[in-house]
């Protein structure tokens, strides 16, 4: 099958966008464009919290792909935190649940109108990220030609009314991991919808200069790296608590905990914790290559792309065992350890003792499971399932 006209719908799109789902969407668009005519429909937002306008509305070309950017009519409701607490923690009406996508943002009626008027001009439309309005409200407009790449994890909003039907109506679903598929099947009993486990693909690892990274940021000794948004929602507060308990118990006096990424929470003022803020791609490569381990404390990830990036450098992973997706990913690769609450220090000690073996397993896994050819084949099967006979 070649030469289809495809549309990919995602809440944010661009080289400046930092986010796992958006990174996966951009890679999928680039790979599919090698065989098909691919367009992207997205919003003008860069920041996922405010959805404030950043890009200019209209049509641009990004990496050779036609990208349609639609203006955000309303970003996240300023009272969303109170609304979220009400819906997730208190008695409420179904109308509150149905209001979730618009109050969470981005509210982008022009994108929905585009799907209404032009959606049937495409052979297949791939919708990324179940929780946001462009997918939750857009996919039901064109269900007969839609594929859902849900990037779902077991979070409370998954139970809300806008999403209960969403997982039954597309022609096909793309899951990122076997664990995501098992979780969605257990919750929605939607095994009748054809699906494909997509995984991810990585090319050659960018050149890494560990010495330059250390010198630039003043990190001479061993360090454990967290890479991503630094926030409570990503489990960074729990990681700091684990780290503090570990150090107070005498663990790893020579090791520094390094956070690299946009900081959205208060950080402690202590010499064994460093918050670098968002780093360049060059620094990122050096940071990954030189770390004792990469730690992923989030309980709510649908795919640990950063784990693949660490394994490219032979750097093992520490993941929270409560996240069945990243802990399953790490176990399948044999490239790190999971840890339960209170068990971070023991897991870190075990990884340090066998770092080379864990790292070699991660590198082998990436080479066998994350090739571009294998990823392309999985994407093609998803498109075929969506287009149908």
Describe, in plain words, how this protein is organized in 3D.
- Helix 9 packs across helix 11 (281-290).
- A hairpin with a 2-residue loop joins strand 3 (58-62) and strand 4 (65-70).
- The protein is an alpha/beta fold and 389 residues long.
- The mean pLDDT is 95.
- Helix content is 39%, strand content 16%.
- It has helices spanning 20-32, 80-89, 94-98, 100-104, 109-118, 133-136, 161-164, 178-188, 210-217, 236-248, 281-290, 305-311, 324-333, 344-353, 355-369, 372-387, and strands at 5-9, 37-43, 58-62, 65-70, 124-128, 146-149, 172-175, 195-197, 223-227, 256-260, 273-275, 293-296, 317-320, 336-339.
- The termini are close together.
- The strands form 2 sheets. It has an 8-stranded mixed sheet with strand order 3-4-2-1-5-6-7-8. The protein has a 6-stranded parallel sheet with strand order 11-10-9-12-13-14, with helices on both faces.
- The protein has 2 domains: 5-201 and 371-387, 3-Layer(aba) Sandwich (Rossmann fold), CATH 3.40.50; 210-369, Rossmann fold, CATH 3.40.50.2000.
- The protein is globular, with a radius of gyration of 21 Å.
- The chain has 16 helices and 14 strands.
């Amino acid at each position: 099958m070649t030469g289809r006209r495809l549309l990919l719908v995602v809440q944010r799109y661009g080289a400046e966008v930092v986010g796992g789902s958006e990174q996966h969407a951009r890679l999928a668009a680039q790979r599919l464009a090698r065989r098909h005519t691919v367009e992207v429909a997205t919003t003008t937002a860069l920041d996922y919290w405010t959805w404030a306008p950043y890009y200019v509305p209209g049509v641009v070309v990004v990496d050779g792909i036609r990208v349609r950017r639609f203006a955000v009519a309303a970003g996240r409701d300023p009272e969303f935190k109170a609304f979220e607490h009400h819906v997730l923690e208190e008695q409420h009406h179904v109308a509150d649940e149905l209001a979730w996508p618009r109050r969470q943002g981005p509210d982008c009626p022009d994108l929905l109108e585009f799907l209404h008027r032009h959606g049937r001009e495409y052979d297949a439309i791939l919708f990324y990220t179940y929780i946001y309005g462009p997918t939750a409200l857009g996919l039901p407009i064109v269900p007969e030609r839609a594929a859902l790449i849900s990037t779902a994890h077991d979070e409370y909003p998954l139970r809300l009314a806008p999403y209960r039907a969403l997982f039954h109506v597309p022609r096909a679903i793309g899951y990122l991991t076997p664990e995501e598929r098992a979780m969605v099947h257990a919750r929605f009993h939607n095994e009748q919808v054809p699906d494909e486990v997509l995984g991810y693909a990585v090319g050659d690892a960018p050149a890494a200069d560990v010495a330059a990274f250390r010198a630039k940021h003043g990190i001479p000794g061993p360090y454990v790296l967290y890479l991503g948004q630094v926030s409570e929602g990503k489990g960074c507060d729990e990681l700091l608590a684990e780290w503090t308990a570990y150090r107070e118990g005498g663990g790893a006096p020579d090791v520094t905990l390094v956070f690299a990424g946009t900081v959205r929470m208060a950080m402690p003022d202590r010499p064994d914790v460093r918050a670098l803020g968002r780093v360049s791609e060059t620094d990122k490569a050096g940071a990954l290559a030189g770390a004792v381990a990469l730690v992923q404390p989030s309980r709510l990830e649908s795919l640990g792309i950063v784990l693949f990036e660490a394994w490219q450098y032979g750097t093992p992973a520490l993941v929270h065992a409560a996240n069945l997706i990243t802990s399953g990913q790490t176990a399948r690769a044999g490239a790190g350890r999971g840890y339960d609450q209170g068990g971070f220090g023991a897991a870190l000690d075990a990884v340090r003792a066998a770092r080379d073996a864990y790292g070699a397993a991660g590198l082998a896994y990436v080479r066998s499971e994350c090739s571009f050819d294998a990823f392309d084949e999985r994407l093609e099967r998803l498109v075929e399932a969506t287009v149908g006979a």
